[in-house]
Amino acid sequence: MLIDSFLPRFDAGEIHQVVVKASREAVYDALWTADLGGSLIKFLLWLRSVPAFVARPRQSRPRNREITLQNVIDSGFGLLAETPNAEIVLGVSGRFWRPSRNLSPFIRSDFDQPVTAGMARAVWNFSLIRQSGTQTLLRTETRVLCGDAGSRRKFLAYWLVVRPFSGLIRLIMLRRVAKAAECGALERPSGRAPSSSFVI
Q1: Residues 6+ apart with CB under 8 A from 39
Q2: Do 157 and 187 form a contact (C-beta atoms < 8 A)?
Q3: How far, in Å, CA of 147 to CA of 117, rounded?
Q4: I need a surface site. Which of 68, 146, 154, 180 has the fewest CB within 10 A?
Q5: Which residues contact 200 (CB under 8 A, 6 or more apart)?
Q6: Computed from CA positions of residues 145, 149, 153, 158, in that sequence, does the dihedral angle turn out positive or negative?
């Protein structure tokens, strides 16, 4: 998989998957066009962003907009690689354990270098595997690598708290993509993500 070329080894990882009763092409279209949000995800993202708003009260509040994969990319994750109808790989770097200002600007070339001390790097993919008939296995994997022992300790403490919520967000996203693909709801929405504080 493409994700292996970016983080073959990692300090933390998580995998989720669903079987979708639709072709791989339909699932891939839905992955880009479906609203991945829903009330629970939007609440969790809002909750994650509260410390930033407390620290910077003049910052504008997120609006209740759809959350698409493009919105996620616009909010801080960068597109690292893509094989149409097969796999999409996103990446982000930062100090995820901080309550605010925790993401670094996305620079594609950084992902070809070792992780800087004091930082962490996350790589997140969606892969689509053709199953029997017209079914598709939609799978997502998250991997995180830290730059040194200090950042690893901080990240793993943070991960212990957020991992259940992070996993729940990914499961809901997969199910919403599956529903969109199975229903043929493939009209591409527009707009930006409600917050740049996406849960790693």
Answers
A1: none
A2: no
A3: 4
A4: 154
A5: 92, 96, 122, 142, 144, 162, 166
A6: negative
Neighbours of 39 (CB within 10 A): 8
Q: Which pLDDT tens digit goes with each residue over 156-191? A: 999 999 999 889 889 999 999 999 999 983 444 444
Q: Rounded distance, CA 83 to CA 25, Å? A: 12
CB 91 within 8 A of CB 124: yes
CA 177 – CA 182 distance, rounded (Å): 8
- Which among 88, 89, 90 is positioned nearest to 28, based on CA atoms? 88
Q: Which domains does the chain have, with CATH numbers?
A: 2-183 (3.30.530.20)
Cβ atoms 122, 80 nearer than 8 A: no
Phi/psi at 22 (5° precision): -160, 165
The predicted model scores a pTM of: 0.82
Residues 6+ apart with CB under 8 A from 167: 14, 16
| Tens-place pLDDT, residues 103-157 | 999 999 999 999 999 999 999 999 999 998 889 999 999 999 999 999 999 999 9
